[in-house]
Amino acid sequence: MSGVNAVEQEAPTEPVRIFGVAHGGAGVGRRINEADGATVGEHPETRTWLVDGALPGEIVQVRRTQTEKRLIRGVTATVAMASEQRVSPPCPLSETCGGCNWQHVAPAAQLELKRQIVQGQLRRFDVEVEAAAPSPSALGYRRRARLHYEQTEDGQWRLGFRRARSHEIVDVPRCAVLDAPLQHAAERVRGLLPLLPARGEILGLSDGERAALGLPGVRLTDALTAALAGVLDDVLVGFSVRGGRQRQAIGRAKLEIDGPQRDGEPVPILVSPFVFTQAQGAVNRALVRYVTAQAEPAGARVLELYAGAGNFTRALAGTAKRVWAIDESREAIACLQGLVERFGLPVTARNGKSEGFLGKLARADRARGHDYDVVVLDPPRRGLGRQPARWLASTRPARVVYVSCDPATLARDLEVFVKSGYTLERVRVFDLMPMTSEVEIVATLRRRKKEAGA
Ligand SMILES: C[S@@+](CC[C@H](N)C(=O)[O-])C[C@H]1O[C@@H](n2cnc3c(N)ncnc32)[C@H](O)[C@@H]1O
Whose CA is nearest to atom 18 of ligand 1? Predict the structure, then answer.
């Protein structure tokens, strides 16, 4: 059954009618009495169900996995009444591999479901969430991936992704969402797994034509160096190997990504597989364009938090007076610094934690006045946090453009801005990772007039 997880096969099933979609991609529903046909009876169970592998409009038979005070979680066992949005998963491993949780959802429907997830999390705000254009391709798009490998008890090697809700690794000889160079690189490195530690991770990065792999926790020996060099070719062009204090490159371990395809597009970024990059190129271009337009950087003093290797920085710096960019990763900041020097960008790149920087800024700002016209931030899942958001709001930038991959922490932080004198003007969702319920959100906040003049 498409999108159905194979766990808990033995538990009895219960019929659930699904009416919505939750953060994380599960269907939201209620228990009913019978599952066949459209007439369903009420059921005394009033708790909300969160059902993996179920879509709005469906009636599904569900195996419980967890019973909580207000919620029951489960996985779809069979589908009694299917949504028109349900499709046969293009990946034969969709029932076991936890890499993609939405292989059973029609690609055309995924973006609207993501929009609904974000709208649901932001229901307390007066804003209509918009959807950007969908990803040009729902398969073969991923240019960045974290693969897991391990040796099994019977001496076999598995290379792939984790099973949903499990640490078990599912062997994935062919992945439907990796782009061609990453797929090629995964196939080339597979034969070398017996030379690596018994378990570990492989970080993949592709520029669309070539791939480089990162091997964390691996100490190079002469034999391994020769073996890694031996699998390099025109597509798999390098390894970055790190173990203890050792950091070594074999071949070309950094790739230039997102170079300009047309006049006026920003300069490319140069990254290793160990540095964060957005999961695909095409939608990232649209995301960078949109974030830059929302920030209105022309002639402005821009503060960019969680800047990474400069994905947004390079575009903001095109017209800004100056961009002050901060990231806690030394390596990402070194990449950004390289970009600044190579292209002469008006950017000051600093290594550090955003929270510490904002705390100091808020204290200094009271004495000195307000430094930044615009703030762009793109934190990891945990978001900015309430106190750092208060510090940031207290420095009164005219605009804040908040890029988020978690609508729940975004909602928490937006509440602080709205209570501190900002209007939530626009929220837009981008589909960087089709076939999964992952969302990328851009929220634009503008300081209200009265407060702007204050
Ligand atoms: C979602 S990535 C965004 C990177 C970049 N904006 C991009 O589009 O590629 C989040 C970034 O936040 C950085 N980071 C995580 N925690 C941080 C913190 N407390 N302070 C500053 N940067 C942090 C990570 O190193 C990472 O580069």
Answer: 353
